[in-house]
Amino acid sequence: SITGACRAIQKLTRVRVVDNSALGNTPYHRPPKCIHVYNKTGVGKVGDRILLAIKGEKKKALIVGHKMPGPTMTPRFDSNNVVLIEDNGNPIGTRIKTPIPYILRQKGEFSKVLAIARNFV
Amino acid sequence: MWRAVLVGCRLLRPVSAAAAGPLRPQRLPPVAGAPRRGCAAARGAGGGGAGALGAVAERRQAADTVLPKFNIDFVVALLRQENAKDICVIQLPPEIKYCDYFIIVSGSSTRHLHAMAHYMLKMYKHHKEESDPHTQIEGKETDDWLCIDFGSIVIHFMLLETREAYELEKLWTLGSYDDQLAQMTPQSLPEDFIFGLTPNSSDHLETRTECNC
Predict the structure, then answer these.
(1) pLDDT in tens, A57-102
(2) Which residue in chain A has the smallest CA separation from B142?
(3) Staple partner for B141: which of A10, A88, B17, B160, CB 3.0–4.6 Å?
């Protein structure tokens, strides 16, 4: 059962991997789920790092969009989008098709993710 | 829409350090008339050895980037001074509101990349005034990809293998016609997806996640 989007991304949320990494795109019988949010509060917004459980492995990821409405004049997405990342911050995939918000530029060190993105919002 | 990108986007041919002459003057004399456009040569795999260029593309009078002094010419001159390999400068059209210039640089080793990045940061700090935002080096923990974002210029320092893997030049010059993008399997909406449906019905979300898996 599914509730509406009340908190953006927290533990056990199902997320959608939007880059073209092999790990994110190969089908598996369970959707990738967040198991930890690297944040003081357990809620992840755009630009936060989380730990995902994908295909039985743990991988870090970066949140690039969530269903919950954020601050005004920021985009709201229809799915909780996430980009897989290594521990050192390098993105695992090489291209991102979905739009990426511009806020990521001011948020932190995410220029690499922006560099492989295709369109911005 | 993206045709305009192709037309407006100027790719300056990758310049190898060997072909670097003396440091260019900081300010090019203003050119009357339209500047010559550099031919778009998308960098093929391993084709970094562009070698000596015959006709060097004359860039537009370096517009105000971050600072009056710290502009693109200065940056490229510094990179050449640092023996950076395969400097690739891409001028992005203003529709992409990301930055004006996108620079990709290769280095010979991790230490070289770190040295270049720190040197660029040092020169930026030296030239900037108080009101300009601070910049940080991203990717200090990595050993193959560093990045500096100066507002209107973004510089990526990568090793050669990383560069080949990501092919950022192709992405930013070809736009939608990039081959890696085309190879990504397009995700289609499930048959029963209804726009605007509140996620209270379990069928809707379950089928969506199944489709994305």
Answers:
(1) 999 999 998 888 888 888 988 888 999 998 888 898 888 888 899 8
(2) A88
(3) A88
